[in-house]
Amino acid sequence: MLSPRVLMISAAFALASPVLAEKAPCPTREAGAAYPWQDLTPMKGDRYAWVIVDVDRTGRPIRCGVGDNNIPDPDMRFLLCNAYKGDWRAPPASTGDPDVRTIKRRTTMIGYEHAMADKKARKLWFRQHPDERQECYPE
Asked: What's this model's pTM, rounded to 2 decimal places?
C-alpha cells in the first residue's frame, strides 16, 4: 500500500503537469544573437571581429575568414572561425540564391565591464517583463 505522502506528491505532480504543458514555447533565436537587454555598444575591454563565412544552400559553413578585428591573438581568430564552422548555421538559401553565399557577422567577445553591465540589465529586464521565463534566455 502506498503511503499518504507518496500519494500527495503524486497528486501534486499530476496537478502541475497540465500547467507546465501549457507554457508557450521559448522564442527561437539565431545562435549568438543578442538578448533583448544587451547593449551592443562597444565597451572597454571588448574584442570584436567581422567573421566572413561562405555557406552552402543549407546554410552550413564551407569556409571562414576574419575581417576587421581587434583580436591580437591569431590563435583566437582561428578558434573563432572554427566555432562558426562547428556551431553556427545560416538560414537556408531561398529560390534564386547562389549555391554558395557569403555571410558577414560581427562577433563581440565582451570584457569585464560589459559582462557586469549585461548582468545588471538582465535583472532589470526580467523585472520589467514578468511574463518572460528565464529558462528561455540561458546565461
From this structure: 0.66
